[in-house]
Amino acid sequence: xxxxxxxxxxxxxxxxxxxxxxxxxxxxxxxxxxxxxxxxxxxxxxxxxxxxxxxxxxxxxxxxxxxxxxxxxxxxxxxxxxxxxxxxxxxxxxxxxxxxxxxxxxxxxxxxxxxxxxxxxxxxxxxxxxxxxxxxxxxxxxxxxxxxxxxxxxxxxxxxxxxxxxxxxxxxxxxxxxxxxxxxxxxxxxxxxxxxxxxxxxxxxxxxxxxxxxxxxxxxxxxxxxxxxxxxxxxxxxxxxxxxx
Length: 245
Known about the structure:
mainly alpha, Rhomboid-like fold, three-stranded mixed beta sheet, 62% helix, globular
């Protein structure tokens, strides 16, 4: 099996390049608008006391004009998207990212409206990047990650540790992004709980459906070729003992 090091390291895939170009272009546009006197952060970001219906979505693309460019967000995208492409197929990637953004926005709005966690200001993709790495650790449980290129840690332990640290930072920071941070941490675990073949709830709900579909495909393939069908590709959850830097 090829090593994850060569496939999941700092490798700019075509999709990653397009996303990075779009993010840089958006940043340049915001800087130009700010120089022209437009308060782009107030228009885009999700700020307490300055709430608008579009802000839960546009806040992910907002950057503060008085801060450095979002270099760490771009670096996170450069590392995270290739990992997501290796872990999920294209449609699954779109569905997972929709879950991340949808859950963070919905949970943020719900907690704000119920008064449990008031909407707070946040900007950038930082909160959207952590779910990608948590999902990778949960999907490739036995893969060895070398944190800072030196500290070995299993994927499963990384996923749990990253979630615990993220939750601790939310609590210590008095939930700086409201319910958005909670949603970001919950999204990869909800995805894992549904698609992990070891999940007993998923197995119970879908066993009959998958058994019937598999039997039907075997009949169709056997009727066409007269040969027994080949086993499909293994699921991508767990079992990897490769190394990732």
